[in-house]
Amino acid sequence: MATTPPALARIQSVTFSGIDALPVMVEVQISSGLPSFIIVGMPARAIAESRERVRAALSAMGLALPPKRILVNLTPADLPKEGAHFDLPIALGLLAAMGVIPADSITTLTALGEIALDGTVTPVNGILCAALTASTQGQGLICPASQGAEARWGHPALEIIATPSLTALIGHLRKEQPLPDEPPPTPQPPDYGLDLRDVKGMMQARRVLEIAAAGRHSLLMSGPPGSGKSMLASRLPGILPDLSATEILETSRIHSIGGLLPAGQLVNRPPYRAPHHNTTLPALVGGGPKAMPGEVSLAHNGVLFLDELPEFPRNCLEGLRQPVESGEVTISRAARHTHYPARFQLVAAMNPCRCGYVHDAERSCNRAPRCAQDYTARISGPMLDRMDLCVHIHSLSPLAISRAPTGESSAEVRARVQKAYDRQMERQGTCNSTMPPDGFLFEADALALAEQAALRMKLSHRGITRMFRVARTIADLDGTETVQKHHAAEALSYRTPL
User: What is the pTM of this model?
Assistant: First the structure.
C-alpha cells in the first residue's frame, strides 16, 4: 500500500550572535503518524513555546492543525537559537506545508516576528541586523508592520513585507490583497541635546570638556555636591563630533538588538548612557540569559557617564578595565562566545569624600581627611590610571553664578571640536585616544618637559601614553602640526591626583 509522501516547506529566519544575524533555515514537515508538534535544532524555551502561540493564532483564523506528526527543524542544528521571533517563520512554514499558501512564495524570504494569540504580528528586537543579513543574501524580509521603517535602512532595494497580522500576510502571499510597499526612510535631524550655553563660568571645566570631546578622551571630575559635574557631563554629547556613516550603522545595530531604536530611526548622534550606581555587572558590560548588550555597548561611539563613581560595586568598575582598553566585550557561555563592540568615552564624577566637603573646613565631617582617603580608595589604581583627564570642579558662589557671563554655545564649541577631530582622521585615521604615542610629533622642549615630569610624577607607561595623547589633542585644537611645550604642560596638569 502506497504511503502519502510527507509535506515539506522551508523558510529562512535568523538567530543573533552579538550584532550579527546568523541565517537559520526553518524546515516544517507534516507526515503520517501520531499527532504531535515537535521543534528540534537546539531551541530555547521561548521557541519551544512557539507551538502554543502558533496553534492559538491559527485557531483564531479558523484553521486547525492537521492530526498528524508535525516536525519543525531549525538548521544548523548545533547552533543555539533563542527568541520569540521564530513564531512567524514557523507559522509560515506550517501554512505552506498545509497548502494554505504556495510553498514557493516564501523560499526567497527571511521572516521574523512574534505572533499574538489573535494572529497579530508584534515587534521583536534585531530587525535592522536581520535586514542587513537578508540584503547580503539577496532575500526579502517579512517583519512586523511597526518595524518596516527600521527594516528599510537595511538596503534601499530590499523587498520588505511589513505585515500587521498573519491574516494580512496570507492575503499578500496568495496575491489576493497585496500589502503596501514600505516607503524610503526619512532621516530625522540630529538631536544635539542640552546646550553648553547653560553653564556659567567654570572656564577650566569647559576647557577640559572640549579637550575630552575633541580626542574622545576619558574624563574624571571630582568636586563637592552641586558643583556642576553632572551638568557638564550631560552636555558633552552635544559637542562631540558627528558620527560617520559606518559608526551610525554599527551603533544602530547594537540599539536594534537591545530594542532601543526610536521609531525606526537610526542613531545619528553619539549616544549617552548614565546607569545608576546600583547596576549589576551583566547590566553594565553585557550578559544575562540571552547575552544582551550592556551599557558599555549601548554607549558605543558615545558617552558612558558613571555618576558617584566610588559607589559602584568594585566588580563593575574592574569589569570596565578590559573594554576601556580593547573597545569590545566578549561574553563567554558554555555553548558560545558573544562579541559586542564597546568603544565608548568613559566620563565619571565623584565627590572628594563621602560627605563631599573635605576641602571645606566649616562643612566637612569629623573624619576628615581620613574619610577622603577611604572614599577614593574604593577606586583601584589601574582604573584611575585609565583616565586621560582628571580635574577638580570648584563650587561657585551664588554671586559668581549670577554675575558670570553667558558662555559659548554647544554649536560654537562643536565647530572647533569637529575641526580638531578631522585633523586626527586625516593624519592617522583614528582619534587620538586610540593612537599609539610614537605617531605624535613632539618638539624637543615639549618632549623634555614630558619626560622630566613623568619621572617626578612616577607615571606608568599607560599614564605617559595617555598624557601624550591629550597633548596631541590640545595641539590639534590649536591647529599646530607639532606638540609644543605649553601643550605638554597643560596635558600634565590633568594627570595630577584628585
Answer: 0.91
